[in-house]
Design brief:
This protein is of the alpha/beta class and 319 residues long. It folds into 2 domains: 28-119 and 245-313, D-Maltodextrin-Binding Protein, domain 2 (3-Layer(aba) Sandwich), CATH 3.40.190; 121-244, Periplasmic binding protein-like II (D-Maltodextrin-Binding Protein, domain 2, 3-Layer(aba) Sandwich). 41% of the residues lie in helices and 19% in strands. Strands 1, 2, 3, 4, 5, 6, 7, 8, 9 and 10 form a 10-stranded mixed sheet that branches. Strand 1 (27-31), helix 2 and strand 2 form a beta-alpha-beta unit. Helix 6 crosses helix 11. It is globular and about 65 Å long.
């Protein structure tokens, strides 16, 4: 009996030590997009810092495809031990739920939220040939010219497309969606006057904010951007409640031990407070956050609800 008690005690002690020593082997951060994008560019400096902190190799594993769903599925089906982590954008855990009737994972059921790392608004711009210097003038012009004014997005079903359709709904205007293959072609066509207006990602448009070839009207976030505090929001420009933002977060497979989730939360939030990491985020047009797991869970649920309403009302379909 004594020997049995000692064995149990040793096993419990060993388990506690093992848990305290996390991570005890290399950690993989899955980025569900190709290298060089906004998610990847935020993940890599964080991985380097964590490698130094943990004295363990932390690798970024780019698994792009299916609007982020390939990489997200890999993490959802990985062992829940903290050694496979998802650095996601908002699309694969909120927007895609509204767009796709069949997904191989459930963002709510299959993941445990850790922290929302950063957020970035989109920017509503118009070509200078359009006589609108603010959102109210743009809406008034669109009402006078229904079906004539176009807006560009970086692809069908993305947050840029959602922003345009939500503005149409709230403002009661009829503007035409024009889709481009990515932010580069989108900004080029906007500056060339091939579309009247556009919702453009902050990292793409930031270098052209003072260009005479585009006119910046507003940002799409609930609050003004800390990067460009003088640019008003759509919400304060006549569309109260408007909030469409891109954001990035850390998730782990459901069932990951609480102490591991807590460790990941503490260390990732700590990274968002480091000056060099913050500088890199801001350079990408992202505002560092580092919120609680509960806050992230609420953001995901709210976004899913919002995007489902927009998709249903606008009858948006993707192939």
């Amino acid at each position: 009996m004594l020997k049995r008690s000692l064995v149990v005690l040793l096993l419990l002690t060993a388990g506690g030590v093992s848990a305290q020593q996390y991570p005890a082997k290399p950690v993989r951060i899955v980025v569900p997009y190709p290298a060089g994008g906004g998610t990847d560019l935020q993940a890599r400096p964080m991985a380097a810092k964590l490698s130094e902190m943990w004295k363990q190799q932390v690798v970024v594993d780019n698994r792009g495809g299916a609007s982020g769903m390939v990489g997200a599925e890999i993490v959802a089906k990985s062992p829940p031990d903290g050694y496979t982590v998802l650095m996601c954008a908002s699309a694969e855990v909120s927007l895609n739920v509204a767009l796709y009737s069949k997904m191989t994972y459930d963002p709510i059921r299959d993941f445990t939220p850790v922290t929302q790392l950063s957020i970035s608004p989109l920017v509503l711009t118009v070509h200078p040939s359009l006589p609108a210097r603010n959102v109210k003038e743009f809406i008034a012009l669109a009402k006078k010219r229904p079906g004539e004014i176009s807006y560009g997005s970086s692809g069908p079903g993305g947050p840029h497309h959602m922003a345009g359709e939500w503005m149409k709904m709230l403002a009661g205007i009829d503007i035409i969606h024009v889709s481009f293959k990515g932010g580069g072609p989108q900004i080029q066509n906007q500056m060339g006057g091939h579309v009247h207006s556009a919702f453009i990602s902050m990292p793409v448009v930031s270098q052209f904010m003072d260009s005479p070839k585009i006119r910046v009207l507003a940002v799409t976030s609930a609050k003004r951007s800390t990067t460009f505090p003088n640019v008003p929001t759509l919400a304060e420009s006549g569309l109260p409640g408007f909030d469409v933002s891109q954001w990035w977060a850390i998730l782990v497979p459901r069932g990951t031990p609480d102490n591991v989730v807590a460790k990941l939360h503490t260390d990732f939030v700590g990274l968002t407070k480091l000056p060099d990491i913050r500088e890199k985020m801001v350079a990408l047009g992202a505002e560092p956050l580092g919120g609680t797991a509960a806050q992230l869970a609420e953001v995901i649920r709210a976004d899913i609800s919002k995007y489902k309403k927009i998709v249903a009302a606008a009858k948006i379909t993707v192939n």
